[in-house]
Fold this protein.
Amino acid sequence: MRKNIFCVMNLVHLIKSAIQQAVFALYQKQLSVDELPINETKPEFTGDYTLVTFGLSKLLQKKPDEIAHELGNYLVANDALFTEMEVIKGFLNLSIKDSFLLEFLATHFQQSNYGNSELGDKKIMVEYSSPNTNKPLHFGHLRNIFLGHAVSAILKNVGHEVIKVNLINDRGIHICKSMIAWQLFANKQTPTDAHVKGDHFVGDYYVKFNDEYKSQMATLMAEGMPEDEAAKKAPIMLAAQDMLRQWEAGDADTLALWKTMNDWVYAGFEVSYQKLGITFDRYYYESNTYLSGKSIVEKALKNNLLFQKEDHSVWIDLSDAGLDQKLLLRGDGTSVYMTQDIGTAILKYLDYHMDQSVYVIGDEQNYHMQVLKLILQKMQEPCADGIQHLSYGMVELPSGKMKSREGTVVDADDMVDEMIAIAKKNTEDLGKVDGFTSEELQQLYQTLGLGALKFYLLRVDPKKKMIFNPEESIDFHGFTGPFVQYSHARICSILRKASIESLPAELSLSDITLSSIEKNLLKLLAQYPTTIYQAAKEMNPSIVCNVVYQVAKEFNGFLVDHSVLKASDESVKNMRLQLCLLSKQVIAHGLNLLGIAAPERM
RNA sequence: GGUCCCGUAGUUCAAUGGAUAGAACGAAAGUUUCCUAAACUUUAGAUACAAGUUCGAUUCUUGUCGGGACUACCA
């Protein structure tokens, strides 16, 4: 009977409902489970879970101590879940029966989808990566990409339908800058001629543009022109702006060059995405969506939701929401960033009618996203309420922000290659290359290097900005991806040595006593699906990093004090093998959600 | 100026209002005839400051100090 309940409920929930029933039986009060604070018992006390009774004191008109004693005695006497209790001040420490945890283990150790749930029922779009097409991906983009990919996997895992979207910002002044510089300096060279990856090739011309722009400004300023005027009148800038106008006018040559250079970039991005193991279900291109935003704004203007100034520019007044006025169309009728985003949001909704639309975008755009949602709400667009900004903090260097102008930007491709090289070096230094073919080794280095990188970027709460410390990120010890991967490989090694085909699922429950470390590991594993559900609710992959690390750490500790294959008797050995199997399943499952592979050997 | 976010060991990160604030790296010292030592064990080390709310505050409120983001007819 417990077994069935366990499939749909978790351990803490079971404890809460047991307490709920006990409260009703003793005091005839119906409490909601949210009114029952359950914590894990601190290691220095005996017990597994603790009920804090101070809050109940008022509700039940009794002293915390009395409540704790009465509830504890009742639970131990009447509920099969508990074996003993202890009261210290107002804290009721409850111990869970070993047989309960053993039964849980026997039920789930072979479940290959353990960790999945079906609680989610929404259709959710997740937009991430969303690069500009004028330069290659840098380290900051990696946080975005890994976050989006992991959040998508986590949401899907708890039962939501997920659509992964990449919105390519393929038009605008930025790409025109690269195009102008290419026309001026490239001598018609292509990435193939130059043996350079397409996105880097185009990015190099973006840099060339800025160099030339700076030197032209310097020339103008030397002739006595003020800086702001020089910034506007530098010939190469005027040329880029002219090219943007040509593009919007549909000039055939401009469009052809634009398409060619974007294709170079896409080919480069594709290589990077593939290496990173990142995929999308759907690509949107701003060149296709920016015009629809304009017509939507014009329609809203007719409906008097917006107003126009004397120069014909179109604005929305958000002062009733505590914000100011926001421009939606320039005086000359062209779109701004916000206009495009309005169009894209509506188009996406027409395509998918999703319940929720998650934007993985840095926190410097908090205001922008707030305004976008507000505008769409004012326009009463059905997509508006589902818009959710998954805001993440910037990645900074120990020396401060990455600045492209100062050349402190860490390139994504370089970073990946470096991590893989370090994985290779570490493996070779440890002499762990025997028994692998050279292809397998290449695969392993990639698995470990990417594992380290992804884990490093995902282990911090997305909301918080994080410091990228090059020396620390390449560490393969401690709270890192390779540590977790190593634990997985060790488990696999044990399982290879045991012939596990004939592992009996049924145990004679009565004659096994769990050690405290076995019990801790089991509690962690039992809570795992709930932990994942929490990660989904908060869209926070760092929770997954933490739990797989805890399982790995706990497992390593277990392994030091307990022999699996040489256990004292057969039933203990079987139980420990089950523990190995479930731990392996949870580690691999969690890593998979993070986009990290779990190697069988390393 | 206005709006918002953030201040936790030397460093990077944890902690639904709960017990003596957890890890990791770094530092110091140990563990290998035994399932992978990329492991494990031990030691030292922190809530910016000041009030308030209450049985109880890293968490909530206010103020001070310090850091950051946004506040473009850029994207």
Notes: Residues 1-8 of chain A have pLDDT under 50 and may be disordered. The longest helix of chain A spans residues 198-222. DSSP finds 22 helices and 15 strands in chain A.
